[in-house]
Amino acid sequence: MNSIKKNALIILLMFLLGLNSACTKREGINNVELPENEQPEPGLDVITLPVVLHVIHNGEPIGEGTNLSEQRIKRQIEILNEDFRRKENTRGFNDHPDGADTKIEFVLAKLNPVKELTNGINRINVNQDSIKNLGYNQNHYAQYSFWDTTYFINIWVTPLPIEAECIVLGISSGPETDLPGTKYLGIPGPNDAEGILINWAHFGESEITCHARYGRTLTHEMGHYLGLLHTWGDKECKTNDFVEDTPAVIRPVFGKNSFLGCDGEMVQVQNYMNYTEDIVMNMFTRGQAERMHYVLKNHSGRNSLISSYALGEPQ
User: Which of 85, 165, 176, 311 could, after both became Cys, cross-link 201 (CB 3.0–4.6 A)?
Assistant: First the structure.
């Protein structure tokens, strides 16, 4: 790819990312009362969800460049679980009074769409397929490979040029439910693919010179996939992200230092649903966990993942 094409791609990706990142709001999940038994309390059974990694690469040998190694992929899934489960002695642990073990875990799919054994990693060489250029979105990458979202969470590791590093991290579709703020998620249309895109440079741990190098991009996007908004929502103090225990803030939260938000309350700089640096991210709140469990119970597509055959063994 020549420099002119690369520059044009970066401009397009920045534009698309800006559109996606603007789609959020809040009014407090307290406006939707949940029965006590739907809240993620200690002792609640852990929910396990299957994911498939579509590694879209440029033809490199496995473990080089965009064709990520199996070790790096498995480590990313470990990080995702460390974060969602608030595991001690990992970067995902916190001792904040509002911090939550979400009781949600993720595994690489054990069976593929035809119920054959798989390691959950699906590698596709972009040089072997000719597809329509639909931009940086789920519909574009679904042309390479797309597994039924009734049974799998599709995650595409995308082979963006190195110039996109630290500019384009990832995007995610969101679930349509009756929760307040749902319309501010990236809800797919009737004929749209859904899932998560992660720039290969930000998938898992790496030595890149960027604030997003510890695998928290997927944690953030998985939050969107399960119904969470950015903590600043629609940038209105009375609305924001529809979660009561995330302090309201009227602007995007970057960097690694906290500051005063609405009503003189310090923002949760460590919350995964910010744009903060990976090294400080270590928290979902109880309210955020509650919202994700509501989605898993009430959204048919997300709920079906809980009993997916991809979690089991071939019959």
Answer: 165
Contacts of 61 (CB under 8 A, 6+ apart): 67
Strands (E), 185-259: 196-199, 254-255
Q: Quick one: pLDDT at residue 40?
A: 36
Helix axes 70-84, 216-225, angle to 10 degrees: 60
Q: What is the pLDDT of residues 6-22, one digit of tens each?
A: 443 443 444 344 334 33
User: What's the CA dihedral at 35, 36, 40, 43 to 10 degrees?
Assistant: -140
The model carries a pTM of: 0.87
Question: DSSP string of 135-181?
Answer: -SSHHHHHTT----TTT-EEEEEE---GGGTTT--EEE-----SSTT
Rounded CA separation 289/99 (Å): 9
